[in-house]
Design a protein that fits this description.
Elements: H1 2-9, E1 15-24, E2 27-37, E3 42-46, H2 53-60, E4 68-73, E5 76-77, H3 83-88, E6 91-94, H4 106-110, H5 127-139, H6 157-170, E7 175-179, H7 187-199, E8 206-211, H8 214-220, E9 223-228, E10 231-237, H9 243-251
Parallel strand pairs: 3-8, 3-9, 6-7, 7-8
Antiparallel strand pairs: 1-2, 1-4, 4-5, 9-10
The structure holds adenosine-5'-diphosphate and magnesium ion (MG).
Adenosine-5'-diphosphate (ADP) is lined by residues 24, 27, 29, 47, 49-55.
């Protein structure tokens, strides 16, 4: 009961960072970053190369610990030792390139590291379940796969990204970090992925999107955080800004 009540109180899937610092030797990669993100919104982290975007995302996803500051998830302060702990807390990251193993088939990619075990045959993967589930879950994201035994390398770039997103959600992600999810894709494939990212809002996911495509980010984002030299130099809700204003601040 206590657990249930707690879950009801905390279904906003909120992340709050307070005064976060991270140094690498004498490089101050993040300086005094404070921000808050919530479910049902797309939060865009914008900044040039070297600004600190990946460092920020790596702290949220459990790759690094902050040197100073507080990291709060649904009102509880957390300190993840590794990404597995973050995933267990419902925080998953989809990386640009590492998402999918091309030579492995589609359903194995979907269940990678979480293989369903057959009831009757100890230690055997329940392939039928894996294949059916993969098909069903991908269909929710507008992807029809005739044969999930195909290698994942036969999927288009956009389909691979969407597979990684579908997989994260199936395994319980409530907070999803997307690091440049469309930067390796052509326009058409990119649009496909964008369409599905927008749908995540209806699924009440807290989306944190790292991008340096300002026009695309502005089109899909609800909230924008601009990072420069490790500092948060601007924070805007969509109605209060424009792609051009964001660009001006970034280029200043
Ligand atoms: N593991 C690391 N070791 C040393 N320096 C790092 C490391 N990761 C990032 N940095 C430095 O921290 C700064 C921010 O990097 P990063 O977060 O990767 O920026 P972005 O993702 O915005 O391009 C850069 O100066 C980068 O060289
Ligand atoms: Mg980066």
């Amino acid at each position: 009961m206590a657990f249930l009540e707690r879950n009801m109180l905390t279904n906003n899937n909120q992340i709050v960072l307070k005064n976060i610092y991270k140094n690498f030797g004498n490089i101050n990669a993040l300086k005094n970053i404070s921000m808050s993100t919530n479910s049902g919104k797309i939060h865009c982290i914008l900044g040039d190369n070297g600004a600190g975007k990946s460092t920020l995302v790596n702290i949220v996803s459990g790759v690094f610990r902050a040197d100073q500051g507080k990291y709060v998830v649904n009102d509880d302060e957390v300190s993840f030792s590794n990404p597995r702990e973050a995933i267990e807390a419902g925080i998953s990251t989809v990386y640009q390139n590492l998402a999918i193993i091309p030579i492995m088939n589609i359903y194995r990619n979907f269940f990678l590291g979480n293989e369903p075990i057959h009831n009757n045959y100890l230690n055997m993967m329940d392939k039928e379940f894996a294949i059916d589930t993969t098909k069903k879950e991908l269909r929710k994201f507008d992807i029809s796969i005739d044969n999930p035994k195909r290698s994942a390398g036969t999927l288009s770039g956009g389909e691979r990204q969407i597979l990684a997103i579908a997989r994260a959600l199936y395994f319980g992600a409530k907070i999803l970090i997307l690091d440049e999810p469309t930067s390796a894709l052509g326009v058409k494939e990119s649009n496909k992925v964008v369409e599905q990212i927008i749908q995540l809002k209806n699924k009440n996911i807290n989306v944190i999107l790292v991008s340096h495509n300002i026009d695309q980010a502005f089109m899909i984002g609800d909230k924008f955080f601009i990072i420069k030299n490790g500092e948060l130099v601007g924070e805007f809700d969509k109605p209060d800004t424009s792609a051009n204003k964001l660009r001006t601040i970034l280029e200043k």
